[in-house]
Design goal:
Strand content: under 5%
CATH topology of the domain at 205-307: Cytochrome Bc1 Complex, Chain D, domain 2
Shape: globular
CATH architecture of the domain at 205-307: Orthogonal Bundle
Largest sheet: 2 strands, antiparallel
Helix content: 25-40%
Radius of gyration: 19 Å
């Protein structure tokens, strides 16, 4: 039965890919061909309504190619003095290792976790996020600027510590570019206010299963049933058209100091954004078992974990940390 489901799922993937990749005209009848940019690939008319500025969480892979605010093809940006920087930030966000090899490693891009270039509901959306900073960071136990958060993502989620011992700074080219893109996504949002869609990836407190009671073996069985169409049995990602899911473990994945290396954090992403062919179909408990399986796998080591959670100690789901 599982084999049959996989066959049908892969057939659906083939239809989606051929529909989206094989098209040749611009969306909504527009032809956008700026002289310095390639023609925009076609997105067929949306079979769904946006949730405000975001791709709605319930949509399947049919929406994977949809970028509601796309700075590469938005000609209005040409009037902005930092248009090139915004577009560079978008390119780094969606193709991180190729565009920022000096401070990132492996094969994970920012958009592998923040789907649709940070513009998908319940997939860690970043629209409006710049307005929320500065804010307290529990891991560092200090106030973070948006630049601090970007730097941490490069060093942890992008495993930048594998290629450099020197952390980027707020004025580093890559940090400036990512901030410009996030600021552009946050235009019109009131400073100091959290967007209503932020923080919606958390498993409810009363649904959290104690880490010691989670079963990685059960999580593996669920992973093999629900997740391999996109991630493969080896967790390294399957090529689907021009997209490939990021590796979930191994040397090309995020390191053990990243947010996704925490069981409950990863479970929240899985619960609401996955599986991509049927998002939201997993239960809270199933998502946690899958997260327990993934976080039990080897991954690169973040060399400065001793600087994290110094006062309060690591939370119970930070399984790669020694308990203090």
């Amino acid at each position: 039965m599982v084999v049959g489901l996989r066959t049908r799922s892969r057939a659906l993937l083939a239809v989606v890919v051929s529909t989206l990749i094989g098209a040749c005209s611009a969306p909504e009848g527009k032809t956008v061909r700026p002289s310095n940019r390639a023609p925009r690939p076609q997105m067929p008319p949306r079979p769904y309504a946006l949730a405000g500025p975001l791709v709605p969480a319930h949509t399947t892979m049919v929406s994977a190619w949809d970028i509601p605010a796309d700075p590469i093809y938005d000609e209005a940006l040409d009037a902005l003095p930092n248009a090139d920087t915004i577009r560079l930030g978008y390119r780094i966000f969606t193709n991180t290792q190729a565009e920022a090899p000096a401070i990132s490693s492996g094969k994970v891009s920012c958009s592998n976790c923040h789907l649709n270039a940070g513009q998908r509901e319940r997939a860690l959306p970043l629209v409006g996020v710049s307005a929320a900073y500065p804010e307290m960071n529990r891991r560092a136990e200090r106030l973070f600027t948006i630049e601090d958060r970007i730097i941490e993502c490069f060093m942890r989620s992008e495993n930048g510590t594998a290629v450099t011992t020197t952390f980027p700074t707020a004025d580093s080219r890559e940090v400036v570019a990512i901030k410009a893109y996030l600021d552009w996504l946050s235009r019109g949002h009131e400073k100091g206010q959290h967007p209503t869609w932020r923080g919606k990836n958390a498993i409810p407190q009363d649904k959290l299963v104690p880490v010691a009671k989670l079963n990685p073996a059960h999580g593996k069985a669920l992973f093999l049933e629900k997740c391999t169409n996109c991630h493969g049995e080896d967790g390294q990602g399957v090529q689907i058209g021009d997209k490939k899911a990021g590796p979930l473990w191994g040397l090309d994945s995020w390191n053990d100091g990243a947010g996704a290396a925490r069981v409950y954090t990863l479970a929240g992403i899985i619960r609401y954004a996955m599986p991509y062919l049927d998002p939201g179909s997993l239960t809270d408990e199933e998502a946690q078992h899958i997260a327990a399986f993934i976080t039990a796998q080897p991954r690169p080591a973040y060399p400065h974990k001793d600087r994290d959670y110094v006062k309060a100690g690591p939370p119970p789901d930070a399984v790669y940390y020694s308990k203090r």
